[in-house]
Amino acid sequence: MAKVLVIADIKQGVLKGSTAELLSKARAIGAQTAVVAIGSNIESLVPELAAAGSDTQYIADDASLDLFSAGPYAACVVDAAGQFGASQIWFGFSESGKAAAPRVAAQLNAACATEITDVIVDGDKVEIVRPAIANKVVQRVKVNTEQLVAVVRAGAFEAAADITGTENPVKLSIPAADLKAVIKEILSDASGEIDLADADIVISVGRGAKDQAGVDLVKDLANDLAAGFGSSRAMVDGGFMAHNKQVGQTGKIVAPTLYMAIGISGAIQHLAGMNGSKTILAVNKDPEAPIFNVADYGIVGDLFEVVPILKQEIKKIRG
Ligand SMILES: Cc1cc2nc3c(=O)[nH]c(=O)nc-3n(C[C@H](O)[C@H](O)[C@H](O)COP(=O)(O)OP(=O)(O)OC[C@H]3O[C@@H](n4cnc5c(N)ncnc54)[C@H](O)[C@@H]3O)c2cc1C
Fold first, then answer.
1. If one looks up domain 3-171 in CATH, what number appears?
2. How much distance in Å is there from the Cα of 301 to the middle of ligand 1?
């Protein structure tokens, strides 16, 4: 039986939904599940970690682990993987996951696969599925090592509604600090805006918005819906949006419940960052725009006319 160790995604003491998504998938492939939680003051999360679908919770709780540092975090994961006898180790799609996964794989002499969208287990044969070349092809890769370390793409798996687990906490010993790289401080986005990775709705603006007034119009709609506000690269290159708002191949990958692309053509590099979204709505004045090929709902029209109508209608529904 596969044994899957999931790395809990914890941000400022809060357990992120991706942990339950990964544990649900692990259960769906018939695996035994455990979770490793690393941080400071996180022991109280044990019941939540169990409820997310784990049967063992490896906890590394220490003030020295407050800020993410790839070396010590990887050491905790390797320790937990050894104790659990994990055949697969799954990280969610986060900067810390992407930084720690290759270290864990190197230490375990395991295969490392990033951006996976599926895992297929057939007896002791394991295959992973991942998009490649900016989503132009889908690779199905056979894993030949005993262990697999995987970074799962955002939104690849869904949390099962009926999932439960068992509380069985195991304390990990705290690794020595990494003297090669000491993280002094992590500066978060001070804008107070919703993080694109966490947003249930993401609204992105493209070159069709033309200028700052157009950007502000779309941003207002995002504010009305408490949505994350992103953009195409054209608006970043144009100086209208910060780079951390760029969605796409060289920006963020998002998979919200609803993605709205406003004045975005739908270049393949943009699609690479959002085509895993559950529902896609596009507003574009060109009926031939490629974004309509991936959109569930399309509005052909001038965004300067359509966005105010959307705002009005949303206000009516909410009011
Ligand atoms: C290596 C590489 C990496 C890249 N990475 C990324 C990435 O990560 N993310 C990304 O987004 N791009 C990326 N790009 C750029 C990408 O190829 C496109 O150039 C970019 O996505 C285009 O942005 P856009 O859709 O906003 O602009 P455009 O392609 O210019 O499209 C604007 C759209 O707005 C519509 N429009 C115009 N006026 C209106 C109006 N009044 N109302 C409604 N619609 C209107 C037009 O019909 C058009 O479809 C990358 C490119 C390369 C080469």
1. 3.40.50.620
2. 17
